[in-house]
Amino acid sequence: MTMQSVIKIDDLTVSYGNTRVLSNIFLNIEAGNIYGVIGPNGAGKSTLFKAILGMIKVSSGNIWVLGKEPQKAYVDLAYLPQKEEVDIQFPVIVSDVVRIGRLAHKGVFERLNSVDYEIINQTMIQLDILKLKDRSISDLSGGQQQRVFLARALAQRPKILFLDEPFVGVDIKTEMSIIQILKELAEEGVTILLVHHDLSTVSNYCDQVILINQRLIGCGPIETTFTDENIAKTYGGQLKLLHKIS
């Protein structure tokens, strides 16, 4: 895997009003890895994504994405938000959702061409949703919907892919299928940041881990960073509760 840096964060702090959500974050993200972004609810994981994507104003610090300011790198960044942030009742069919992924590469009045439609078709085949292309998104199961939204992101052909809790509400078959696709993308050089809550599968799914709870606890290879000590620092008193649930 290449060691090229694709995201560099220096001393990032983010606040919502008087509430500080992230404090003094330093990160260096390297290409072609799957990063598990791990931490308790309210740790700032989604906020970190939105800061890197240029979706929110940061309080202080600097972010470079592919050597640029976040807003200037948007064509190469794809984002799959948490399911509750997506309106699945909006009356749209599967193929139109996937088609949205190509629009990032187009001007305001520029139409999709044959290359775009071939990418859309290939992506639907890759996610095993071609047979669903004329179905309304609201009629699909949770697992099928997540495949469609991931297809939209992949149709963009991003260099960096942000996935915020992509396995919530999906069946195990879909989860295994998605993680296999993500591993293949990483082998091709795509960088993947994945918010994930199932600590038992982190080591199997990810190459690297970012442990965060408003501040950075650790970032690095699974073997050296995803340790009991760092996990305890990340979750604190919530760790015993997690063990009881699991």
Verbal overview:
With 246 residues, the protein is an alpha/beta fold. The chain has one domain: P-loop containing nucleotide triphosphate hydrolases (Rossmann fold). 33% of the residues lie in helices and 25% in strands. It is built from nine helices and nine strands. The protein has helices at residues 45-52, 94-99, 114-126, 142-155, 172-187, 202-205, 222-225, 228-235, 238-245, and strands spanning 5-16, 19-30, 34-38, 60-65, 77-80, 160-164, 191-195, 208-213, 215-221. A six-stranded mixed sheet has the order 5-6-7-3-8-9, sandwiched between helices. A three-stranded antiparallel sheet has the order 2-1-4, covered by helices on one side. Helix 3 packs antiparallel against helix 4. It is globular. The mean pLDDT is 92.
